Amino acid sequence: QLQASGGGLVQAGGSLRLSCTVSGRPVTSYAMGWFRQAPGKEREFVASIRWKVGLLTYADSVKGRFTISRDDDKETVYLQMNSLQSEDTAVYYCALEGPRLGLYEYWGQGTLVTVSS
Fold this sequence. Notes:
Oligomer: single chain
Number of helices: 0
């Protein structure tokens, strides 16, 4: 089970930190990803972190502004979002890649981020 939190209302230029905590029965997974879906748009990839090698991947639209990180003791993955823009307004979802490689099959419930201009 994935629990995402940390969304809210922030002014443009501000920051938020999203958290995604993994709980329940362990599943085979290879990475944690953050995705977002803005009103009227399709869901898009934001960032991911691979467990074994720690590889970080970002969408071009968030590079240099967002940082994904993890705390293994807390079984939590974070998405630090800085210099937020109105275009970042969306529902943000965390998801686990696995058990099939390349497929995000476990999803959290989403947390809403609203950036006011």
